[in-house]
Amino acid sequence: MTILLSEIRTVATKPYPDQRPGTSGLRKKTKIFQQPHYLANFVQSIFAALEGFKGKTLVVGGDGRFFNREAIQIVIRMAAANGFGEILVGRGGILSTPAASAVIRAEQAFGGIVLSASHNPGGPEADFGIKYNISNGGPAPEKITEAIFAHSGTIQSYKIIEAPDVDLDRLGETRVGGAIVRIIDPVAVYLALMESLFDFPAIAQIFKDGFTLKFDAMSAVTGPYAKAIFEDALGAAKGSVINGEPLPDFGGHHPDPNLVHARHLLDLAMSDAAPDLCAASDGDGDRNLIIGRGQFVTPSDSLAIIAANAHLAPGYRSGIAGVARSMPTSRAADRVAEKLKIGMYETPTGWKFFGNLLDAGRVTICGEESAGAGSNHVREKDGLWAVLMWLNILAARKTGVKEIVRAHWAEFGRHYYSRHDYEEVASEGAEALIANLRAKLPGLPGQGFGALKVEAADDFAYTDPVDASVSEKQGIRVLFTEGSRIVYRLSGTGTAGATLRVYIERYEPDPAKHELETQEALADLIACAEKIAEISRYTGRDKPSVIT
Ligand code: G16
Fold first, then answer.
1. How far is ligand 1, taken at its centre, from the CA of residue 370, in Å?
2. What ligand 1 atom has the least distance to the C-alpha of 25?
3. Structure confidence by residue, pLDDT tens digits, 355-373
4. Any residues with CB less than 8 A from the CB of 523 and at least 6 apart, and which?
5. Could you say which architecture CATH assigns to the domain 2-186?
6. Is the pLDDT of residue 426 over 90?
7. pTM above the 0.85 mark?
8. What ligand 1 atom has the least distance to the C-alpha of 499?
9. At the top level of CATH, which class does the domain 190-412 belong to?
10. CA 492 to ligand 1 centroid distance, Å
11. Local confidence band at 256 (pLDDT 50, 70, 90 cut-offs)
12. What was the pLDDT predicted at 4?
């Protein structure tokens, strides 16, 4: 074992006022994180919010973006100075978010720190982020994130060990102060977990029989995982994984697997050269994109289809206990839960809200409209898990994505669904828009907009059924008498200005009306969304910047 000579130092610092974690940890421009003591202040504030970790294990990893390695060295030295006994770090500083969750659980660690700004671009001019995960492997609940923020507002000093950098690229152990730093294979634990959940021999067989896959790792963290799983373990043709090397700037791309930033996959899937399945994951590996030959699957539909078919995978053979979705996610999964006679939970946006439900065994499968799906195998959403689940379903049902989606709509009805994002608008305007909507809420029920009539309107509040904690102001809902819905909320993950998200949904039970183009099917609701919220007046934009 290498022993690095070291000494604990207490460094004086001053609070930064902007360290309140958002939907998923603290996300800011990289330059903000590079300010003197900025990252160290936040890390010390995390430790201040925790109790009883002396001598325990901390898992550390990130998505490989610019500043990842430097940040990991700081976290290692501070964790050792603050009394952690063991620090597990993915080789090269790499751990996808779901893999970090899997390692925390497998190693029974006290918690973990994940360095990532998820699907946001990386680089000196782009974004960076950090979040803390608790011992169940999931994102810290609001009670902890608020305590972190409270400490960050009064911090006067932090503890760090003065020691040379740990070699992140060599598996093995190094002593730093009183802690052992163990560099681990970032893929091994995760791969073993996936093998325990899915029918690898059946999936390998469809690849042998000529099934074709194109998986875009978007030059982000999933490359090494995807190659090990799809190409090495399952026998997909070499080259099935593209952009498979994690790069600090993601090759200059926006590692968000949606129809804007992964447009090339949609084009491929709609072309004559379409493989059987096109898929992608994001910066830190927790999101997914699923497109079959000629068929994009919306994340909300994907959740519903996974819930209806999960029993085909060995890890879920005995059925699922319940399903949870974030409030803005379409209600397609609700129909499946109803049919299966299992629990259905509607939570605020943010994977952290699923943790209690999963821990309590109330739900097995969770998902969000923001390209997230996952299960009780970890406490994060999991991009590669979703792709494997689809592969397992395809292998078991011996049919194509398109056929599965159409059959699902025919059985349950179709939820036309779209999200319109107005990115990086002025915060004042966005906040005024929401304030105006809140003020309008009591007067909306009964109002008509063309053929649409408002049945109810509210500001979503959630009481956690497990610990009774209450989260208010989680999004404005406008429900129409014929079952359609518009939801408005401000994103909690942006790093510049504000992002208004408008979620639009219409339920269509009639299979004869399932072939409309989504924006067309929603046109009257889209116009109504503008009328109710006066989006162009408040944002200065006459159209969304991203439509998913
Ligand atoms: C994070 C959260 C998700 C959330 C998404 C979008 O995902 O973990 O739960 O749905 O952000 O949140 P918002 O609408 O507030 O921007 P990720 O993939 O960015 O970690």
1. 7
2. 20
3. 999 999 999 999 999 999 9
4. none
5. 3-Layer(aba) Sandwich (3.40)
6. yes
7. yes
8. 16
9. alpha beta
10. 7
11. very high
12. 65
